[in-house]
Amino acid sequence: MPALAASTRTRPATTYDCILLAGFGGPEGQDDVIPFLRNVTAGRGVPDERLEEVSHHYRHFGGVSPINQQNRDLKAALEGEIASRGLGLPVYWGNRFWAPYFADALRELHADGHRKVLVLVTTAFSSYSGCRAYREDLATALDEAGLTGELELDKIRQYFDHPGFVEPNVDAVRAGLRELEAAGKGEAPHVMFATHSIPSSAADASGPRETLPDGTPVPAGGGEEWHAGGGWYAAQQRAVSALIMERIADEFPDVPWSLVYQSRSGDPSVPWLEPDINLAIEALPESVTGLVVSPVGFVSDHMEVAWDLDNEALETAEGRGLPMVRVPTVGVDPAFVSGLIDLVEERHVTNAGDVPRARPALTEIGPWQDVCPTDCCLGRTAKPTIASAG
Question: For Fe-coproporphyrin III, which residues are the binding ones (predicted)?
Fold first, then answer.
């Protein structure tokens, strides 16, 4: 693969005042579920009756999404790693769709005297929903908080092929295959790497526009006349999945694997990335003796992992008598937490003249960009964002 312009879009290391951990957010009780779903679907005209229909997985868990507690745990783990390195960077936490909201977190850190903020988003891959939407919502939150021009927000690069993200996933898949083997089901295993499905149009628009994942230039005009097979979003996921399988080939050679999608929503007439994990499980050959599912597209065992994989996908596997092992996400794995602070140290130096940490990348794609072109992962409309440049 040719060198990407993304790898050249870096910003010089500087000294930051604090870190903002940017999450999605989730309800923390039954009374929160519909208000939370209203936030997520704002502007789409979805009635409460429809929201109640899709709330069942939250209701099943008492209206509590695990994601907020997982981010509290991640924040605490990051603070511990920062303290061990003597970096002196406080960590704040804000969400897009539930308390603590971005605007509240920005007001808090501003009141504490901070002005230069390094944002760490809890998504590893490039897409509108996984990167640009966060950057847009942070720009909106600055306005809402009355802090535009008062705070400088920079964002840590997408970290899909950083060692801190890859290595825990390698360990998890290896452990899953060992579990099948120990149960006598490892003769002919299959590994599925699961990630969030997104509309095909959004997938094709993911990442920078100067080149397609195969290295060819984006056709003039882009738009509906070309299809990039999932754009950079899918290309990054395929590259990381292939790398994980390469890393375990010493112990588990020639194990077949596939990239599958989950959690699609919205108008069923709109094309989304496929195959759906449940259909993919049903289509597996009868010769497969066991299935390992790795939620590689996620960084924590949140609601869509707990429901779509641990309930629906497991039920599908059980329905065809196929043993399934769902391995964990990176969560607060020490290697992942350490890797996130390594990413911080690519951008943050304590003193002027200090040498920043190197920028490792384990696939041919990375290291990814610190700043995004204005048309990168573009949604329906171009909105103001943080961490972008023409």
Answer: 65, 134
E-assigned strand segments in 197-323: 257-262, 290-294
Which residue type occupies 328? P
**Residue 11 and residue 190: Cα distance in Å, rounded?**
41
| Amino acid letter, residue 44 | R
For residue 273, give the nearest of 310, 244, 236 by alpha carbon.
Answer: 236
Cis bond before residue 100 (omega within 30° of 0): yes
pTM over 0.70: yes
Residue 55, annotated as binding a ligand: no
Which class in CATH covers the domain with range 163-326?
alpha beta
**Residue-wise pLDDT tens digits, 248-258:** 999 999 999 99
92 is in an annotated binding site: no
Class of domain 5-159+332-389: alpha beta
Six-digit token string for 65 = 């999404």
Q: Does the annotation list 197 as a binding residue?
A: no
User: What confidence tens digit (pLDDT) does each residue in 39-57 have?
Assistant: 999 988 889 998 998 899 8
| Two domains, one topology: 5-159+332-389 and 163-326 | yes
Confidence of residue 229 (pLDDT cuts 50, 70, 90): low
Annotated binding residue at 304?
Answer: yes
